[in-house]
Structures are given as C-alpha cells and as structure tokens.
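Bench notes, afternoon.
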Amino acid sequence: GLSSVITEQLVKGEKVTIPGFVTFETADRAARTGRNPQTGETLQIAAKRAVKVSAGQSLKRAVAGN
C-alpha cells in the first residue's frame, strides 16, 4: 500500500511529496547531551536518522479554515 511505498523511499533516503498535502523526508539528528527530567542526570543522546513531515499549503489552508 501507500505506507509501504513511502517507507521504501525514505529508507533509500528519498524525499516523498504528495503535492499540496504532505512531504516526508529524512533528517540526520546530531548526537547531543540531554537530561533525564525525572532525575536531572545528564546523558548522551546518540545521533540518528529521523523522519521529518511537513504539511503542504492546501492542507494548512483547509485546517485553518481558509
């Protein structure tokens, strides 16, 4: 289905756009220092690849009621 096609393309590092609706792309997140909010302990957060999702203009306008 659609989700498997989008997943396959993202795994390859490709950007997937449904014009006016949504764009999916990968973003590399750098390693950084974080903090556990419960204990206050400092910890290292590893670098990773994440999915970035951006709403298209048509979707944004529809949700805003324009």
